[in-house]
Specification:
Blueprint (H helix, E strand, L loop, with lengths): L4 E2 L1 H8 L3 H17 L9 E2 H7 L10
Antiparallel strand pairs: 1-2
Helix pairs in contact: 1-2
Amino acid sequence: MTPVFYDVNDVQDVLRCKESKAYRVIRECNKELKALGFIIHPGKVSAEYFLTRHGLTKEGIVQ
């Protein structure tokens, strides 16, 4: 089953970055989603929005 939300560990795996950068990316995405009127969950980001925002697809991620 594909996750609906990504947490910091998922973002780190996809972007291959440090924890602090992953949290910064999550905050930035959530800020954009909140401005669009979506409900956000601190510390997690919509997987679909995250992937779209970074030009990725679910198939393009190797776990």
